[in-house]
Design goal:
Layout lengths: L1 H9 L2 E6 L10 H8 L3 E5 L4 H4 L7 E6 L11 H13 L3 E6 L9 H11 L2 E5 L4 H9 L12 E5 L13 H5 L4 E5 L5 H10 L7 E6 L7 E6 L3 H7 L6 E5 L21 E4 L3 H13 L3 E4 L3 E4 L5 H7 L7 E4 L2 H13 L11 E4 L2 H8 L14 H9 L6 E7 L5 H8 L3 E12 L5 H8 L5 E2 L8
Parallel strand pairs: 1-4, 1-5, 2-3, 2-4, 6-7, 11-12, 11-18, 14-15, 14-16, 16-17
Antiparallel strand pairs: 7-10, 8-9, 8-10, 13-17
Length: 454
């Protein structure tokens, strides 16, 4: 009995997490929490890269359904189930990321059954499903007081393993509301003809929403009688949801999603992986298509000894100066690891290079005493120069960078000591596909947020 209890306590847990159809901002708070503590992430290929950045740097990331023709490289469902069980038995926290909602055509049932049969603890975290997301981003109501009081979610691709009766298209044709077809692009001729044969008028309005909530979302109007032709002529491919019913005609020519100021632009975010998601998601909210290519990687400093020596005599400094978010993170992480706490800071005042660094300090319950009006080293030096004479400064910085801050404080008769709390390492093997896109003019803007990245 004792061994069984110990075995259960040592097992990991699996989270089946829906992340929505595309827009990383639709990831739920609960989903982000689970992702942040995952040891292993098994994810679908249609998930936005910004969502994956929410995982810890140490997490193992495995794509089980790479995007591409014919499902090439896609794991069989049985293999996914086996890996979930195996990893949990090893004591790992596993997150299975699914586009949309895991319980709406997401095959969560198969994975849940495998986990339950193996005695593995699991949790299902719902996500925004494509039907409601497409309607919201195309600006149409799925239900309407005058146009339809019910919604049916329908698969356009029934599994060959299904037992029981196939879809009753005559019943669907008479459904008093809106039909939303998932995975219905390839089979559009079949299901549209069956609906017409079942009595649904061929002039029933249809709205096709391809890659809903992604920056390149595209909407095409049609009718039930012309939808197959519209998909063929428009070269529309999956993923797409197809909304059938009177509510579809309420879509405006240009939705709120189409009117965002950066719509149609492609922006490369070059910040380190652990810091890229916040900037990328902000740019995404303004309508741009964001791609991620870190120009630098952040790592431990080349030598911890100078940092450790400074931590032992923090009470000797009048000012602690942090030049980046990473400087704050690595400094305090090292302080905690060595058994210290905030009392070690003594009466030292705190200066930071900008509001982002101040925000990171706030996570530790600390307020910056000095934040320059403009966010660069010269401005910070100017803000501190008037009170530098005879004061002792500890500059917490990267392993490389401009010496301007230290030089100007010394010119103001300050005593300056510098420590490299982390390393900034150039990424020398960028993604070949992104390099090709830059060379062919497919990237409109590249963000540069520090001198190291430049």
């Amino acid at each position: 009995m004792g061994q069984t209890g110990q075995s259960k306590r040592s097992q990991g847990k699996v989270y089946l997490v829906g992340v929505g159809p595309g827009d990383p901002g639709l990831l739920t708070v609960r989903g982000a929490e689970c992702l942040g503590r995952a040891d292993l992430v098994l994810y679908d290929g249609l998930i936005h890269p910004a969502v994956l950045l929410r995982a810890a740097d140490s997490a193992e990331m495995v794509c089980v359904s790479p995007p591409g023709p014919g499902g090439q490289g896609r794991w069989p469902q049985g293999e996914v189930n086996r890996r979930l069980v195996e990893a949990a038995r090893q004591g790992r926290t596993v997150v299975r990321l699914k586009a949309g909602d895991p319980v709406v055509f997401g095959r969560a049932a198969e994975e849940r059954e495998a986990l339950r049969a193996a005695g593995i603890a699991f949790e299902v975290v719902p996500g925004v499903t494509a039907a409601t997301a497409a309607a919201a981003y195309a600006e149409i109501p799925l239900t309407h007081a005058e146009q339809g009081s019910a919604v049916a979610l329908v698969t356009g691709q029934e599994s060959h393993l299904k037992t029981g009766e196939p879809l009753d298209y005559a019943a669907l044709a008479g459904f008093p509301g809106t039909l939303v077809f998932y995975m219905g692009v390839e089979s559009v001729a079949h299901w549209s003809q069956r609906l017409v044969a079942g009595g649904k008028p061929p002039n029933t309005p249809v709205l096709i929403v391809r890659r809903c909530t992604w920056p390149d979302q595209r909407t095409v109007r049609a009718t039930l009688g012309t939808v197959a032709q519209a998909i063929q002529q428009g070269g529309l491919q999956r993923p797409a949801v197809i909304i059938v019913g009177p509510a579809a005609q309420l879509a405006p020519d240009e939705s709120w999603f189409d009117r965002r100021p950066l719509r149609g632009l492609r922006v490369m975010v070059t910040r380190p992986r652990s810091q890229a998601s916040e900037l990328g998601e902000m740019i995404t909210r303004w309508g741009a298509d964001v791609v991620y290519q870190p120009a630098i990687a952040i790592a431990d400093p080349p030598d911890w000894r100078p940092v450790d020596a400074a931590l032992e005599r923090l009470d000797q400094f009048d000012w602690l100066v942090f030049t980046s978010i990473n400087a704050v993170r690595y400094f305090f992480d090292r302080l905690w690891r060595r058994g210290g706490d905030l009392r070690r800071l003594g009466s030292a005042k705190l200066a930071v290079i900008g509001p982002g660094t101040a925000g990171e300090l706030a996570r530790y319950g600390l307020a910056a005493d000095v934040i320059p009006a403009t966010y660069h080293a010269d401005a910070l030096a100017a803000a501190l120069a008037g009170q530098a004479r005879g004061r002792r400064f500890l500059l917490v910085r990267a392993s490389r960078g401009r010496p301007v801050l230290a030089d100007q404080l010394r010119q103001a008769d300050g005593h300056v000591e510098q420590i490299a709390a982390y390393s900034s390492i150039d990424v020398t093997s960028p993604d070949d596909e992104l390099v090709g896109q830059m060379e062919t003019g497919q990237i409109d803007w590249v963000t540069v947020t520090s001198s190291a990245i430049a």
